[in-house]
């Protein structure tokens, strides 16, 4: 006959068996959740942040944004600027965006020691006047217009020619072809010119390329001290690779207050790449020119 101690042990065992049986029954109605674990980060699983670094660096007279797109993390910066003359030279902005697309697609690689900063359009108000947008667009979206003959969209919303508003031989009025144009109330009076000045001061580029149209020529920059030796090297390398003409000193008509000249005055080599037409980005030619520029740095 079992003792009192044995009875207690039997009761405990019975309770344990009941608990297990109930648990087994309940488990038949629920799926056991799959247990997953996060992999330990390794060199293979860690990825770098997506490029580009996109930043709003200023606004136009009418409040449209001016942006930079930055690629690469090297210590040597090259600056590229399109759309200084807005809709009048819309294909220079298109070229800048094609460059951006090639960088994002990985078909154009930034060398490890370099860094590219791109301003697609410095004059978004002038671009909007002709194209109807101040941002990305494609050539097929450009409506038929007379901008290339009348100059519509060339100036900012204050009717100032931005490429006469910089601090190199600045004066209130300058020329464009045979026309007298406003250069603003003083050097850097316009918000767009102030924006480029700020970008140059912050980024400290070793060279600057401006895209314009249309002369089928690469021009060197100069101010009171003349053309910088490195500017000539950049001009020749880009022009030869892209199959453009090259001119070391612009003499078609007198100008003052140009951005390239201001850069020359502060010791930064700059070139003006004038596309051959006003209807094409001429990307393949300019890609070759950019690669030649890379070769110098």
Task: From the structure above, extract its key features.
alpha/beta; Aminopeptidase; 8-stranded mixed beta sheet; globular; disordered N terminus; transmembrane helix; metallocarboxypeptidase activity; zinc ion binding; Peptidase_M14; Peptidase M14 domain-containing protein
Question: How would you describe what is shown here?
Answer:
The protein is of the alpha/beta class. The chain has one domain (53-296): Aminopeptidase (3-Layer(aba) Sandwich). 34% of the residues lie in helices and 20% in strands. It is built from eight helices and twelve strands. Strands 1-2-4-3-7-12-8-11 form an eight-stranded mixed sheet, with helices on both faces. A two-stranded antiparallel sheet has the order 5-6. A hairpin with a 5-residue loop joins strand 1 and strand 2 (65-71). Helix 6 packs antiparallel against helix 8 (283-296). The N and C termini lie far apart (100 Å). Residues 1-50 have low confidence and may be disordered. It comes from Candidatus Kaiserbacteria bacterium RIFCSPLOWO2_12_FULL_45_26. The active site is at 274 (proton donor/acceptor). GO terms for molecular function: metallocarboxypeptidase activity; zinc ion binding. The chain crosses the membrane at residues 7-26. Its cofactor is Zn(2+).
């Amino acid at each position: 006959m079992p003792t009192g101690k044995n009875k207690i042990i039997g009761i405990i065992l019975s309770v344990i068996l009941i608990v297990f049986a109930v648990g087994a029954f309940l488990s038949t109605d629920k799926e056991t959740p799959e247990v997953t674990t996060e992999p330990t980060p390794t060199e293979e699983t860690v990825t770098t942040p997506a490029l580009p670094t996109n930043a709003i660096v200023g606004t136009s007279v009418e409040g449209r944004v001016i942006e930079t797109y930055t690629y690469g993390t090297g210590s040597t910066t090259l600056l590229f600027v399109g759309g200084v003359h807005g809709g009048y030279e819309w294909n220079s902005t298109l070229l800048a965006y094609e460059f951006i697309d090639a960088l994002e697609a990985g078909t154009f690689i930034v060398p490890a020691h370099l860094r590219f900063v791109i301003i697609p359009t410095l004059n978004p108000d002038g671009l909007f006047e002709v194209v109807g947008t101040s941002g990305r667009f494609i050539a097929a979206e450009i409506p038929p217009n007379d901008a290339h003959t009348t100059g519509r969209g060339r100036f900012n919303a204050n009717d100032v020619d931005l490429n006469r508003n910089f601090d190199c031989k600045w004066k209130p009025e300058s020329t464009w072809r045979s026309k007298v144009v406003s250069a603003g109330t003083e050097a850097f009076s316009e918000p767009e010119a102030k924006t480029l000045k700020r970008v140059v001061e912050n980024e400290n580029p070793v060279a600057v390329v401006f895209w314009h149209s249309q002369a089928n020529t690469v021009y060197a920059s100069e101010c009171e001290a003349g053309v910088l030796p490195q500017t000539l090297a950049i001009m020749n390398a880009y022009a030869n690779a892209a199959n453009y003409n090259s001119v070391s000193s612009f003499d078609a008509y007198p100008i003052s207050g140009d951005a390239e000249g201001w850069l020359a005055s502060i010791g930064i080599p700059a070139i003006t790449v004038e596309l051959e037409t006003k209807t094409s980005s001429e990307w393949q030619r300019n890609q070759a020119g950019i690669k030649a520029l890379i070769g110098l740095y």
